[in-house]
Design brief:
22-stranded antiparallel β-barrel, globular, 40 strands, five-stranded mixed sheet, Maltoporin, Chain A, mainly beta
Length: 726
């Protein structure tokens, strides 16, 4: 593939001629209006909408998109768990994630749930594709795809400075500036974000926040004005670093009720340290009715999450030694487990921490050819991908006594084990689509074919002097292919009302032992738009022939499993209703009042009875875990002619459980959160704003993962900021 990349890169610089218009190459859907016309479900969140709250939490951003659910984690959205139409949310591993149309998961085939997500605070927009529209953006085609739009190079020289301060020593500085010439343009962007954290640690005075830095540099070279063929070359470089004092350890229920924001002292050493780099180069040629794009990309991600893994107390107390076991025992009222968590244990116990140290690579070539005819738009796409996950994970131990951690003892480097392994994947995919119109009817017919090979190597020693062939390595974890089709149709009943219907086959590749996921998906809906009011109602149904779950340190595994293994769940059914209503009223004095409601109702259950180390003991009819049965975003705002505007949003999330059996200590009740913002334009270049999150300072259990314990949302938080456009 590297030879193919070299040939493609060489071709990018041939004959840079002509151009009068600039064509964005990073968008899949386009504008909000385009999303409302597509023959299927799609949503676009614009830069103006993002500025209303200046959200840095992608969970809050996506709460305004119907059909998208999530499981919160640390309260800031640093490590999202996103679901589209009921796909399992853990680490967003079953959603196709992209930035500017390029796969952004560190190992989209070898390890899709790898805990990297682009910094939401620097985004200029978000696109969400569902239904048959999503099969163009594999490999995860059951639920859909999310395309994150980075800050574009401006049309003329200029930029913005955004400075923000808030509680818990929170600070955010976002700066970008574009230098635009006749043919050459450049954009430099910096996003600096830090917080002391809203949690405390029992017995310790240290912060529980994070420090994250993100830099993006873009270059664009276009043809000379006035020629017949427009050509454009774009280069993008991105670099981010994060150091966060985050933990996997939640709270037992009694401790949550006492103080939802006080962590256990045994988690004081937990820390995430990661770094991400992207190099991307793309070429576009527009021949009028024919467009060609080629993108070569390279993503590297390294992370080490040093965190509590086990408590070696079996000989002393008789419980299982996983932190999950201790929290479950505490929830059952066992005094010895409660004492361990509180640090009042009579005898010292050994805390076992693990360097979850991993390096990921992801590189590929993406080609796209589109013909725009009078009645037909034909699209052909090809992508060639290589990715890998390298694990070299070392344990450390420390005594836990009197509510304090002792000195760390670093363990030996791993020999032959699951902690010393390299998993590599190669994949290729083609995509064909024809969109054609027949009067008031628009039809999309799409086909996708994908093949992949995933191989794992485990080594005999820490020096990696040889692969352990005696144990059967290297092992081919998956060597498979899949083809699927999709169909979508939209019919304009009149100037205001459109009906649409879609069917598509979807699948999720796997390399951990389970069969790939396969599902048939249908959607049907109606749209209404009269210029001031927009309404949309969609019914969706997903019929899984096979669903699987992947064992991760953060997922809902109920038994013992090896990280990376996958477990079949068999048949499952997910259906739901998505509703959107948007309108704007204007008073006699000229004040505008935008109103919107976004609602999703989901019914998701297993269709068979089975036992699994991951899913537990499951009976047909049990609900799929970590999936709220409803979600609502209700927003009201105002905008005056003198530059004062405000918004208030009620987010309401339905109940769910963290495991399928929904036993005691796994329930997550419904909860509500209210956010509000106020903005005042000082002049054309500058405005000031204030954002209040969780206005009523609610304290609810919003998740019971990672590691089983209860977790709360961010408490009431006030941020003030100033935006200045250069």
């Amino acid at each position: 593939m590297k030879k193919l990349n070299l040939i493609a890169l060489t071709s990018l610089f041939v004959s840079i001629i002509t151009a009068e218009v600039e064509i964005e190459t990073v968008e899949i859907i386009g504008s909000v209006e385009d999303a409302k016309e597509i023959a299927g479900s799609a949503s676009v969140i614009t830069e103006e909408e993002l500025e209303a709250y200046e959200y840095t939490n992608i969970h809050k951003i996506l709460s305004n998109v119907p059909g998208v659910n999530f499981r919160p984690e640390e309260g800031y959205g640093l490590r999202p768990n996103i679901s589209i139409r009921g796909t399992y949310a853990d680490r967003s591993g079953k959603v196709t994630l992209m930035e500017d149309g390029v796969l952004i998961a560190p190992g989209p085939y070898s390890a899709s749930s790898a805990y990297y997500f682009p910094t939401a605070g620097r985004l200029a927009g978000v696109e969400v594709l569902k239904g048959p529209a999503a099969i163009s953006q594999g490999p995860y085609t059951i639920g859909g795809a999310i395309n994150l739009l980075s800050t574009p190079i401006a049309d003329e020289s200029g930029g913005m400075i955004n400075q923000e301060f808030g509680e818990d020593a929170t600070s955010r500085t976002h700066i970008h500036y574009s230098f635009v010439g006749e043919r050459l343009a450049m954009m430099v962007e910096s996003h600096l974000w830090e917080s002391g954290g809203f949690d405390t640690i029992k017995g310790y005075s240290q912060d529980t926040g994070f420090d994250k830095e993100d830099t993006v540099i873009k270059l664009r070279l276009t043809s000379e004005p006035g020629a017949k063929v427009y050509q454009e070359v774009n280069f993008k470089y991105q670099d981010s670093d994060e150091l966060s004092e985050q933990t996997y350890v939640g709270l037992a229920d009694a401790d949550f009720r006492k103080d939802a924001h006080e962590r256990y002292g045994l988690s004081a050493l937990d820390n995430m340290d990661n770094e991400h780099k992207t190099n991307q180069i793309s070429y576009l040629a527009d021949f009028g009715k024919l467009e060609f794009t080629a993108t070569s990309y390279d993503n590297d991600f390294a992370r080490n999450w040093f965190k509590v893994d086990k408590i070696d107390n079996q000989k002393v107390y008789g419980h299982g030694n996983g932190i999950n076991n201790i929290i479950a025992a505490a929830n059952a009222g066992e005094a010895t487990a409660i004492a361990i968590l509180h640090g009042t244990n009579a005898d010292p116990v050994e805390i076992k921490l693990k360097n979850n140290n991993r390096v990921y690579t992801n590189e590929g070539l993406d080609l796209n050819l589109q013909f725009n005819g009078d009645l037909h738009t034909l699209t052909f796409g090809y992508r060639d991908t290589e990715d890998s996950e390298d694990r070299f994970q070392v344990y450390a131990t420390t005594p836990w006594s009197g509510g304090k951690l002792g000195a760390l003892t670093i363990g030996s480097d791993p020999g032959y084990s699951s902690n010393n392994r390299l998993t590599t994947a190669e994949a290729s995919a083609i995509y064909l689509n024809d969109e054609f119109t027949m009067g008031a009817l628009t039809v999309n017919v799409g086909f996708r074919s994908e093949e992949w090979t995933i191989i794992q190597q485990r080594y005999v020693d820490a020096a990696r002097s040889a692969i352990n062939t005696e144990k059967g390595y290297p092992k081919t974890l998956s060597d498979n292919d899949n083809s699927l089709m999709g169909f979508g149709a939209a019919y304009d009943m009149n100037d205001t009302t459109q009906l649409f219907f879609g069917f598509h086959e979807g699948f999720t590749p796997t390399g951990g032992g389970a069969d790939p996921e396969e599902a048939d998906n249908i959607e049907m809906g109606v749209r209404y738009s009269d210029g001031s009011t927009y309404m949309e109602a969609v019914y969706f149904d997903t019929d899984y022939q096979n669903m699987f779950g992947e064992c991760t340190a953060s997922g809902g595994a109920t038994g013992s499993c090896e990280i990376g293994d996958t477990f079949n769940a068999g048949e499952a059914s997910i259906s739901g209703l998505e509703l959107v209503v948007q309108t704007e009223m204007t008073s006699a004095s000229g004040v505008k009042y935008p109103l919107s409601a976004v609602y999703t109702s989901t019914d998701a259950e297993f269709d068979n009875t089975f036992n699994s180390d991951f899913w537990g003991s499951v009976s047909a009819g049990m609900e799929i875990p970590d999936l709220p049965d409803s979600q609502l975003a209700l927003q009201a705002g105002f905008e005056t002619e003198n530059g004062l505007s405000g918004n208030t949003t009620l987010y309401s999330y339905g109940s769910t459980c963290s495991v399928a059996s929904c036993e005691a200590g796994t329930e997550i009740d419904s909860y509500n959160v209210i956010d509000a913002s106020l903005t005042k334009a000082v002049n054309e270049a500058m405005d000031v704003y204030m954002v209040v999150s969780n206005v009523t300072d609610e304290t609810d259990i919003i998740a019971r993962a990672p590691k089983n314990g209860a977790r709360a949302q961010m408490p009431r938080s006030i941020l003030v900021g100033i935006r200045y456009r250069l």
